[in-house]
Design goal:
45% strand, 7-stranded antiparallel sheet, mainly beta, 2 helices
Length: 160
Amino acid sequence: MKELPEDATRGLIDGSAFDAKASSAAGSFTLARIAMIKHHHFIGRFEVTNPPLEAEREYLRGWMAGLIKGQGMNVLSGPHVAHVDTPGNRGLTGVAIIETSHVAIHIWDETSPALVQLDFYTCGTLDKEAILKAIKPWGVVRNSFLVLDRERDVVALEPV
């Protein structure tokens, strides 16, 4: 009996994931439902009084790694952190490719309070409270955020 290549046995039928397995030499297949992945996306805007600054690149790198690990995700590349010196756009920027998508953070430190934008997208579920707790030490004075479910459409998981 010929086996189908791994990548040829997976697919979507009516939006549901299935794993096809050859069941006989005649070529019939059975479909077994596999776990559906989630598509959760946290988009946050924070005004903070104590943001990480240029000399704290390593701190931000560790903070991002801890945030990702705390969400049960695995880092594939990064976190990568850089500082931008352009007037009006100065601050730290960090990105990480995670096994299930990405995390990006931008910190503009020229304003008071400083502005932080955080984007955490995953094919898993997110713990919003853990994200908010991680940013709290930066002296959050104002925040707004959305948690979206993007599995079949873009839907807010909480009232905006």
